[in-house]
């Protein structure tokens, strides 16, 4: 069976095609360009290269957030439309879990970060437990300062790996918060989410019927988009 996976929750655009045994094709870019004009051409090109038709697909897997409001809306709406049109199941995977997967062979815990502005980050805590990929802390939006204090207080016995394409925004804070032997910052090539990992996370969900209803499925923003927040603020003044 063939599966299509893609994530548009950050500046990174990643698309992958595979089956239960392997990732057959993958396309990943880190370019400041609108995903709306690039996602479908990337999907079409990848499927053409792999000689797979849409009718051959058995499921869709998408990064469900948190992350960029616009990026998530594009990715999730595309996934919903394809799943509905093809009458195939849809699985949504945490975009933070996907980012963290680049450090799955790290010996400690992985801290994925997405900048949420105003000193805040979307983040969580992941790692391997009993050979199972595990979420150690619920995904959240939090002030980076408070998150680092939480990690300091509760995970002193672990080494932490910070993974993010936004890492330079918070490098100094991380370096100031921990002794050098207590943390590591992922190398450049390991900071990007890859949809090959999305296949690995999502296929078991489809196999176990952990699927989304294509009509009602919505991204996990974790907060209102800035435009919505400003609109509600204006309404409260009326």
From TrEMBL:
InterPro entries registered for this protein in UniProt: ATPase_NBD (IPR043129), Gcp-like_dom (IPR000905), T6A_TsaB (IPR022496)
Keyword Endoplasmic reticulum: no
Example GO molecular function: transferase activity
Domain Gcp-like: 24-231
Source taxon at top rank: Bacteria
Keywords noted in UniProt: Transferase
GO CC entries: cytosol
SUPFAM superfamilies in alphabetical order: Actin-like ATPase domain
A Pfam family matched in the record: TsaD
Protein name: tRNA (Adenosine(37)-N6)-threonylcarbamoyltransferase complex dimerization subunit type 1 TsaB
Source organism of this protein record: Desulfuribacillus alkaliarsenatis
């Amino acid at each position: 069976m063939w599966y299509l996976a893609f994530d548009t929750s950050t500046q990174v655009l990643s698309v992958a095609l595979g089956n239960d045994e392997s990732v057959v094709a993958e396309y990943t870019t880190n370019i400041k360009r609108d995903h709306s004009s690039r996602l479908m051409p990337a999907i079409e090109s990848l499927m053409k290269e792999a000689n797979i038709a849409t009718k051959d697909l058995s499921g869709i897997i998408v990064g469900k957030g948190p992350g960029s409001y616009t990026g998530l809306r594009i990715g999730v709406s595309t996934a919903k439309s394809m799943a509905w049109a093809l009458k195939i199941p849809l699985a949504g995977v945490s975009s933070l879990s996907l980012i963290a997967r680049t450090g799955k062979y790290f010996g400690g815990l992985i801290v994925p970060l997405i900048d949420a502005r105003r000193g805040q980050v979307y983040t969580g805590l992941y790692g391997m437990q009993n050979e199972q990929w595990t979420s150690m802390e619920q995904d959240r939006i939090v002030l980076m300062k408070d998150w680092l204090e939480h990690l300091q207080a509760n995970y002193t016995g672990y080494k932490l790996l910070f993974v993010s394409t936004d890492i330079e925004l918070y490098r100094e804070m991380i370096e100031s918060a921990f002794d050098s032997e207590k943390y590591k910052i992922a190398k450049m090539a390991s900071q990007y989410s890859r949809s090959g990992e999305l296949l690995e996370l999502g296929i078991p969900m489809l196999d176990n019927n952990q699927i989304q209803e294509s009509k009602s499925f919505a991204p996990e923003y974790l907060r209102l988009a800035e435009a919505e927040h400003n609109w509600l603020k204006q309404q409260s003044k009326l």
